[in-house]
Design goal:
alpha+beta; 2 domains; three-stranded antiparallel β-sheet; 8 helices; 14 strands; 53% helix; cell projection; cilium
């Protein structure tokens, strides 16, 4: 068979070109340290590597989320630790205020100190996570949870915590509902806490319930029903604002008065009221700011007479009980935060282990066997050199060279 000169050059050039491509590919693999440079190098391995890479990236993002959640929850736990300290100080001041040898002025000093504690608690309740997100406002992270009011403070947040995805099937709450931490102090099993004054001598019973048609008029303030010296008339005063909401009214049993969204009912059981009998009416559920505000007002009121001292003792007892309930709420919230932090720690350990596994799998799929690659590189170089020298010899086999 006759082989033309063109055929010799074409086949020789093609062979050298293939060898050069193979050599370049091996050099690129060594430079990159990877076996798969293009999907065509290993379609199955490349697809598997893509899935693992994406999964590993998601795992890394979960790790970032867990770090953010840990930082936020740690700030919240530290804040509630400070709240616990303040509430313990308040309890100490309540005990001190019960000392029967104190004067009105000395109780006023304690009230001033309690005012400082109240301002501290309000600041802690409005604490942020360091990124201008409020810790205790639920979903409403941009709204300050509490605003100060005449009767204490009002909650402005909502009832749902913010959640952060920290694992494939786990979301962690990174905020607390302020009303659950600083509120939910049950002062009564009913809608309102109605307490007779310790100095009452009559037999009238007072009750209070929400008046449904006028629910919008509820204020959340404290009220006082007081009979006059003849026990024939009574008045109702908003103790928070000092405004008389029901002027002197003749009493008949039973008698119901609707005021500020409440139905207040007075009934002989069976006897009539006594002169100057009083009843205090408070919300059946209040927050710690209302409790401390009531306590401050109590300590600033004179307590020079026996009835006033009895009322002071009753109010201090109620305040102490309310602070205990508030402490329980705060400690429960701290327990929840601690549980979440422990879970995040466990998830971090699991996530780190999975990250190692993903990287090992990627390494097995993509990483280059350097010993094998260098051997192949040397082999390709030798073959290329041999092909080049062979081509030179073969291309010189022509009739002209033979005649020369």
């Amino acid at each position: 068979m006759r082989i033309s000169t063109n055929t010799i050059y074409e086949s020789g050039g093609a062979r050298i070109s293939d060898l050069q491509v193979s050599l370049n590919k091996t050099q690129q693999q060594i430079a990159a340290g990877r076996r798969i440079l293009n999907p065509s190098d290993d379609p199955i391995g490349s697809a598997r590597a893509l899935v693992i890479t994406q999964t590993d990236a998601v795992n890394d993002q979960y790790a970032v989320n867990r770090k953010n959640a840990t930082n936020t929850l740690s700030i919240a736990e530290d804040t509630l630790s400070n709240v616990t300290t303040v509430l313990h100080n308040v309890k100490t001041l309540i005990v001190s205020a019960g000392n029967g040898t104190l004067t009105d002025q000395e109780r006023g000093y304690i009230a001033n100190e309690l005012q400082g504690s109240l301002d501290q608690l309000l600041g802690f309740a409005n604490a942020t996570d360091g990124t201008d997100g409020y810790l205790f406002s639920g979903y409403s992270s941009t709204i300050a949870p509490y605003t100060k009011t005449q009767g204490g403070a009002q909650y402005n947040g909502d009832q749902g915590p913010r959640l952060l995805q920290v694992d494939t099937s786990r979301q962690i709450p990174i905020s607390e509902v302020g009303s659950a931490v600083f509120g939910n102090i049950r002062t009564s099993n009913g809608q309102f806490n109605v307490r007779p004054n310790p100095s009452n001598v009559g037999q009238v019973v007072a009750t209070a319930a929400i008046n449904v048609p006028t629910t919008a008029n509820l204020t959340g303030n404290n009220y006082e029903v007081e009979f006059d010296g003849t026990a024939a008339n009574f008045t109702i005063t908003n103790k928070t604002t000092g405004v008389v909401v029901v002027p002197a009214t003749a009493y008949t049993s039973p008698q119901t008065v609707t005021v500020d969204g409440m139905d207040i009912t007075l009934t002989n059981t069976p006897g009539a009221p006594g002169p100057n009998d009083k009843f205090s009416i408070q919300p059946g559920n209040q927050n710690v700011f209302e409790t401390i505000t009531d306590l401050i007002n109590t300590l600033r009121a004179p307590a020079g007479t026996v009835p006033q001292k009895l009322e002071l003792t009753a109010n201090l007892s109620q305040a102490n009980l309310n602070i205990d309930k508030s402490l329980s709420n705060v400690l429960l919230a701290r327990t929840n935060l601690g549980t979440s932090l422990k879970e995040l720690q466990n998830l971090n350990e699991a996530g780190e282990s999975m990250g190692v596994i993903y990287k090992q799998e990627l390494s097995a799929l993509q990483d280059l066997d350097y010993a094998k690659a260098i051997t192949e590189l040397n082999q390709n170089q030798v073959v290329l050199q041999a092909a080049q020298q062979s081509f030179i010899k073969t291309s010189s086999l022509s009739l002209f060279n033979y005649l020369n």
